[in-house]
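Q: For a teaching session next week I want to show students how multiple molecules come together into a single three-dimensional assembly. I've collected the sequence lines for a complex. Could you give me the predicted structure tokens for the whole thing so I can convert them for display?
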Amino acid sequence: MDYRRDIPLAITFIVGVIAVLDYYTTLESVTATFTVIKNWGVVLQAFALGLGAVNLFRVHGKRVSERTREDWMFSGWLLLMLVLFVVVGLITGQYDASTSYQWIYNALYLPLGATMYSSLAFYMAYGAYKVLRARNFEAALLFITAVLVIIGNTPIFPATYPGFFHMREWIFGPIVSGAYRGIRIGVGIGAVILGIRTLVGLETGYLGRR
Amino acid sequence: MVSMDPQVWIAAFLTLAATSYAFRDNKVFKFAETTFIGIAAGHQIVMGIKNIRDYGWSHLMQGEIIYIVVFLLGIMLYARYSKEYYWLYRYPIAFLVGNGVGISIRAGIHSDFTLQIAETASPLIASDALGSINNIITFIGVITALSHFIFTYEGMHEGTLGWGPKIGRWMILLALGASFGNTVMTRFGMYQGRVIFLLREWLQIIA
Amino acid sequence: MSIWERLMSIPREVVMGLVFIAILIPALNPLGLPLMTGKMSEDWYNTVDNLPAGSIVLFDIGYGSGGYPSLGPGNIAAFHQMFEKDLRIVIMATALEGGMMYPLIMASVKPESNYGAVYGEDYVFLGYIAGTQTAMAGVLGDLHALASTDYQGTPLSSLPLAAEVSRADDFDIVAYMTTAGGTAEGWVYQAYSQYDRPVLGGCLSMMTTSIKPYYDSGQMLGLMDGIKGAADLEFLTGHAGDAIVSSDILSFTQTLVLIFIVLGNVAFWMQRGGAR
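A: Of course. Below is the structure for the complete assembly, covering every listed component.
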């Protein structure tokens, strides 16, 4: 037995089977064991949250120490902000409930988080202008529903003629429901099969390098 | 009257800095980007430590000595960065994967498979003509969209049988167009919040 | 360069600049257009409206700063309705930033001053719990085996509402708002499939198409569809906020996008016709 590979695979199998048994049975012993597993899982996931930060320190710490890259100061700034948030978060003992942490979150994280994702709106507009073309029959199908849904979503058009809104609702009815239900069934089957393969040890990518 | 609150000014500057990327890549955006990455990672650490305290350390302090195993497993996660002891990382990750897979697949069969098929198998004829037409379109959409993804049978995409996957492809394209339409609204819906902030809280020119 | 080629190659800066102006104009001069509410949002509203006073809601704040502009207004409207109906809310967060969204939401809802709600009796916030579906399964399976304090460290045993709930059966309904597909599916799996709890969901508009099968099959009783759904909820609950304000902005920006799409296609086909 290879303790570096077989034991982790066995852990995956046992933990996964207990989780599945908890769903399909009402055995008190299974429920109690799975409750412990769930609670352990929350703590382990919390430990895993630090992995990203460790990697950032490795990559950007190297850039700061070597100072060969032109943008090494940005790496220093990144690490400084990371440390700032951690210090402010931990120093009061109240973590995210402290007013000082909420202050720096609202000043720094909230505007950046909100803007980073939303500035894609500009690219969306430019991309739609450049790429959304009814070049052939199939592209025209995508084009038609995209335009009809955009019209239905734009309040000024339904306000002028309510039929645009009903058209949009109808597209989201049989058209979207039909196709996406088919996709959802396919995705569901795929996810279950991949899950079973993972539990029985046929998928081992998560173990990482040899 | 422009806001005098430093928090609002910092937020406004960072909003404009992040927006500047829409026009072209520049150093101000790079500054905003690196700030974001750093604080996101910092926030993750803060929340991670808080969760370890609330859901791990608290149990240990209540006398559940077994939680020492959880802490050991958690520390072993960081063996990922060691060449020699990398294999230690596999134990906690195996636990997490087994837990995650087991929790999701057990209900996936019911929610994504059984109930979706049951809904599709419901009567096609409704009380009104439009309802019946909608049910028929939905039924055709489900069956043909599913058939589009069958690649294990060679003849599936050829000849008369090939019409099923072809129609499925068309249905999927129609649905993807609807999805694109909604995506446009999502992005503009997100950015409008920033504009309202700039005009209301920073420049204070709207109520 | 022909006129059609020029129309197909408007510089990026011009397009984006016009988009920015299209956002500014309605923000400065609102149109106040009427709203047509969608069935999914109406179902959300009616489901909460039909809950008897004192019912306990498990609410997940599953979004952060990225989703706040779209889902925040809907969350605020939803909480207004729940407090008006004297529902009791156990709030948790499966998103890392959910704990930071909570004070922002509550600063708008003001449950104590607007509704006489008391923290610990009418609502409780558990804070962020790591693990997404593991957290969901943990809270619904046995809350007190998982958590012993709320997000400020107050023992749950000293909070009457938290002391009253321990398992899925103690919750009358589960509601969430999220930007993560895994969270949206996860609540259907864990709350509906495992424990047969009614589920209400809110997600970004671009996620609606993939989450809608759960609504169609009855696994979700209502679905708040992004900023549009948030505006619907604000309208239905009578608490107008940023989502309704955004309707005017959407009118301008999406009309501009349509103009560019039509322009690009007309130029494309005219140029193609000319080339032949």
